[in-house]
Design brief:
With 477 residues, this protein is of the alpha+beta class. The chain contains 10 helices and 12 strands. A 5-stranded antiparallel β-sheet has the order 2-1-5-4-3. A 5-stranded mixed β-sheet has the order 6-8-9-11-10, with helices on one face. A two-stranded antiparallel ribbon has the order 7-12.
Length: 477
Amino acid sequence: MRGFRNLISLTYGQKLSLVAAIPLVVAVAAIAFFVAQESRATAEREIQALERRLIEAKKEELKNYVTQARNGFAYIYGRASPEDQVAQNLVTQILSAMIYGKDGFFFVYDYDGNNLVSPRQTEFINQNWVGLTDSDGTPIVDEFIRLARQGAGWHSFMWQKPSTGEEAQMIAYVVGLQDWRWAVGTGVFIDDIVATVANARAEVEARVQRTFSYIGAIVLAAVLVVFTSGMLLNVRERRLADAKLKELTQRVFDAQEEERGRVARELHDGISQILVGVRYALDNARRRLSRGDDAGAQAPLEKGIDTLGAAITEVRRISRDLRPGVLDDLGLGPALKALTDDFCERTGIETEFSTVVFRNRLDQDSKIALYRIAQEALTNIERHSGATRVTIDLRGHKKGATMRITDNGRGLRTTPDPANPGIGLRNMQERIEQLDGSLRILSSRAPRSGTVIEVSLPLSHMLPPQEDATPNRKAGT
């Protein structure tokens, strides 16, 4: 339990390194398993091929022994009749003398199962061995007789070694002397082949185990490298994140100061000047009234009232730029419509806004982001594009929502301007990235080719109508 709590308490970088190392370990383990299986299968095929070659060599050796033995008594067997007992005794004497190695000998059984020759194990002679089987239940003498009746053949069985008395695997080759109804053959023990095959299999298994050990060491080293690299990258990324956070914080402060400066300029250049005009008109009217010139005071008063109305309008415009009330009251569509109408009236640029009623509404963050992007785009168009026509299209679809802003101006610069590094475009990009959306900008420097800004939001920011928290809205966005 304590180890599990320690695992849970790992840092994010350590968990990330661990998650990166686990697939590596699993993949290498799977590769090692399949390599081991394939190595075992390949080695087993080679061992079986070796075993077959060794057994074939033993069989060929046995066949040569039997052929030589038969050649040794062929002159006797060829002249003798089926009942020639003297010839049969001579042949049994010849075969009894043919022993080789520690365990090699010839044996003879008649077709009735009686043993006639067994020089290494004389207790078998003159005994009937029909039905004899080995420890595995394999018939021996009956199979000798069957093969002899067919002419010749091979037989494999367990037999006691004369030299040690231990049971071992034997391969025998038997030929039939049909005139005398004899089964003559010899056998060779293949325990050396069995031992060779067993040693080969043990060596293969040892190689597989060594391979697993090597792979385990490599995996351990790789995991350590991945973990160490992850820690180093984590430290580096943390430092970069801290630097970016500081930069972002500074940019927020800069944006706040810029906005404050803009509002201060708006108040000084707009409201302040208008209010000065109002004060001058009212002061003029006051002086006229003090002189008793009631008719002369009428004109300054009316001018002051008109100028005060302009000041109220200007205050409303500044307030709308800071936070448009129509965005909260009626939704994104009417807010963008009011923004484009005001832009057209203020700049004289022909502006067209089109939208469709959304089946679902955008959430609050998305509406603010799209409104600010449109506001920034129109500001850039007014200052830099020289356009005469602007269109804004807002619509929802099965993948989310898309807003396209198109102008017929001179387009964007192909190279960055040191005096204008594109803060507005960067602000657009950052706003939309926070919502997992996308921003595309298509522009050309050809005359009147203009710029297209396309903003897309995913479907996750579309809310069903019943979740709309402001029932007073008339528009669908």
